[in-house]
Amino acid sequence: MSRLGKLLAGWTFRTATPSFEPGDVITAFVTHSDGEGVSSRIGDSVLRIEGDTEVDVETKVRLKVTSFDDQNHVGTAEIVEFLGEF
Amino acid sequence: MPEEPDIELSFRGGRLVSALPIAFFIAWAIFQSGILGIGDTTGLVAGMLTGLIVGLLFVRGDWKDYADVVFAGMTRRVAATAVVAWLWAGMFAETIQVGGFVDGLVWAATALNVGPGLFPAVTFLLAALLATGIGTGYGTAIAFTSLVFPAGLLLGANPVLLFGAILSGAVFGDNLAPVSDTTIVSAVTQDADIGGVVASRVKYAVVAAALAIAAYLAAGFGIPGVVSGMPHANVTGQVDATVSAWGLVHLLDIAIVIVLAVRGRHIIEAISWGLIAAAVFNVALGAADLIDVSAASMLLFRAPQNGLTQAVDALPLIGAVVETVPGGQAGVGGSIYSGAAGFFPLIVLTLLLVAGAEIMRAGGGFDAIQELLIDRVATTVRRAETTMVLGTALVNATVTINTAAEIAIAPYIATLGKRFNINGYRRANILDANTSALGYIFPWGGGLLAGFGAMQGLVGGNGTPWFTQEMLVNPASVWPYVFHGWFLVAVFLVAAWTGYGREYVSDRTSEEVSRV
Predict the structure, then answer these.
(1) Do B272 and B190 touch, CB atoms closer than 8 A?
(2) What is the mean pLDDT of chain A?
(3) Residue A41: closest C-alpha in chain B
(4) Which terminus of chain A has a smaller tally of CB atoms within 10 A, N or C?
(5) What dihedral angle (degrees, nearest 10) is formed by the CA atoms of B185, B187, B191, B194?
């Protein structure tokens, strides 16, 4: 990203509940792990991770969104790439 | 040398008791400087020493471990960085001061018709500029309190407001400067590149600075400056046509420091070059009889009178920095000596405070706070960001040296922020802004103490013979006037609630740290 681009990024009021479309590929941390599996919380929206769930909390991953409910700000996603722990 | 493993301590009464040495010190600082109005840094050293001894009584098991943690804290690099910055900035500021810089500023302010009402706002802007250039808010607080503060008093500006404006400028630079140690810590601990971090924080800094300028203008014209009855009244207006503009030559050596710092030279190197230039200018201006300054203003050996010392005094070159005095008055003096010596009590205090923070880490006090925050308080992204702002502010309001406080709180900010996928830039910005702001507001804050130390150096100083003990600003009285600091915290509280500037990891991932 250019210096100007960096300077101008983020001058907005970003929602607490971001929306996603099925098919979106995003970078995110895995944030929660419980008896039912793992999930990634982005703001107050939650993507439950399906498929390969052998992953620790705070691992950075690439996620492909498979479904998203705009009303309740919840959806599902699957891991397409592991980016490691940071 | 390989790093020794971290020692863990156990305290009677639980993990939070590990905060006792620092809590004891804060209570002492409030009692001493807030209630009794005694701004004696060595008194605070006594408070921290007592706090460390009181903490020892609550340790379970071997007291040797506690002693080892004290040593581990005192030898942390962050403490050495602050010590170096103070010693060098102190020598530099004092050397410029004996070279007539204050007179030059008074001359310029008079020539440009900057009156007492406008002076605090202009001071804020200039201090912000210097601090952004040299990257050290403490150095800026020292330089401006030594140099610009007395000039403002002579023009009749309100002393407390003026000190607040200087500290505000220091906050601005500490927050925004790419070479600031707090900026570097914020970027490194949140896995973000420094350039990106600085670029992304402009949107918060300019909003707070615009509000601060408006506030200094309103207060500058609204609050009476120096009124009769105040100790400063006797000197206000004593600006006559005879003040020399030649001291402004020292703007050149300040520029040298800024340029070298911006180019990434070490602070020791940058200020040393500035100091050498200032010394050369002083000797030249003194020799040309333009300013009353000489080599002896910067370094002077006052030797007891005897045959040998009189012979040395008569030597060429060396004799210029030696004078013979009656035995009881022997000593070393000059700006190099007094500029550094003014910070000795503060340096000792810093080392002890960093030790206190290390005890809190080793005793689990910091961990206990983190668990409470994650489980009970930060349940939504707004509440998480609000907690990050207030948590950083609270730790910085209590730990004197803000870089040390920032290092202590940084892992919490990372953990809490990642739980909501808040990206590295936003986390670094929340961390650094509130670190910078709170380190300069309270009477035990390192930035404020640094400025106050410089102010004590003005009493009877070579460049300010008119400055008396009664003219010192009470450190406990300045907190409402550090406008930029308060506005910066307010901007982040509003930003946490409204989402202004918020970015998620999925929006933009911060780049690799390019400089550690």
Answers:
(1) no
(2) 90
(3) B420
(4) N
(5) -140
Domain that holds residue A78: 35-86
- Check if B380 contacts A (Cβ < 8 Å): yes
At which residue do the structure tokens 């009477």 appear? Answer: B443
Element containing residue B168 per DSSP (H, E): helix B159-176
Which of A10-14, B120-124, B178-182, B305-309 is predicted least confidently? B178-182
Q: Do A43 and B509 touch (CB under 8 A)?
A: no
Confidence of residue B278 (pLDDT cuts 50, 70, 90): very high
Question: Which residues from chain B sit within 8 angstroms of residue A43, using beta carbons?
Answer: 381, 420-421, 502, 504
Q: With helix as H, strand as E and coil as C, how does B178-201 read?
A: CCCHHHHHHHHHCCCCHHHHHHHH
Predicted confidence at residue B112, as pLDDT, reads 84
Residue B234 backbone phi and psi in degrees, to 5: -65, -30
- Domain total of chain A: 1
Given a cut of 60, whether residue B514 has pLDDT beyond it is: no
Contact A10, B502 (CB under 8 A): yes
d(CA B305, CA B445): 44
Task: List B residues 167-226 in contact with A (Cβ-Cβ < 8 A).
Answer: 191, 195-196, 199-200, 202-203
How far is it between the farthest Cα atoms of chain B? 80
- A15 contacts B382 by C-beta, under 8 angstroms: no
The confidence score (pLDDT) of residue B179 equals 66
As a whole number of angstroms, the distance between CA B470 and CA B384 comes to 46
Task: Specify if A59 maps to a domain.
Answer: yes
Mean residue pLDDT of chain B comes to 86
Cα separation, B171 vs B200, in Å, equals 17
Q: With contacts defined as CB-CB under 8 Å, which chain B residues touch A14?
A: 499, 501-504, 507
